[in-house]
Design a protein that fits this description.
The chain is α/β, with parallel strands linked by helices and about 280 residues long. About 35% of the residues lie in helices and about 20% in strands.
Amino acid sequence: MHPRPSHPSFFVSHGAPTLPLTDVPARHFLEGLGVSIDANYGRPRAILIASAHWETATPQLNAPQINPTIHDFSGFPEALYNMTYSAPGSRPLADQAGALLDKAGLGHRIDPNRGLDHGAWVPLRLMYPQADIPVVQLSIQPDLGPEHHLRLGQALAPLRADGVLVIGSGSYSHDLSEFRNHRNEPPSAAEPIWLSGFSNWFSAALTEGRTADLLAYRSKAPYAAKNHPTDEHLLPIYVAMGAAGAEPMAKHLHQSNTFGILRMDVWQFESLAETQPVAA
């Protein structure tokens, strides 16, 4: 009997903070994703999640005893502010991840008090609503670009063999200047060309393993700056891709749209070796 494989790493689009209150396909997909992961790979012993909403100059990891829920937004329904996600933290995992970052020459700091921002707790509340799995959050460095974040993920890849689920949480598209023009459109509405053109290019590059193009997406992808005026919401996908290890293979798990402009794609990453059949 063969042991269960390492958990893949995942990129999830967390969308607007109201995702848990909204009846859209992305919400329903995320509600089933944790169940699917548990069934296929076993329940993770811990989760490490890189969110677009914790920006620092150098890598940081949080390590409270219990994660406070950060409501890092304003102007939303009261029901959203009443939501909490009090998952335990894990100083041992933070230290383990920090040691891997140090070994890779990336460095780290531990924040013993910071909780989970909505880029972390919104998708995790849908995936694992019991909040009973320890969670450590990793910051991103928006000034350091995609290659740095790929290296972050590569450094953390050994965690997957130790029962840790590595997730990058961001947004497949993030031009909020278009929100007012599209917010009342149904999920079935046709996407504007600037959104479909970028998303189709990025999805093809992921599927075809064109890492060099992905790292240079701002000059290679059509409408790149339109979809991502700044990098931070796309950088977590590079963490997830790097965490797959050598020769990452991408699997497109979900594609949908909210508010006409927010693509809510979800991707799974494994190394090429992990996708090969195991001899009996």
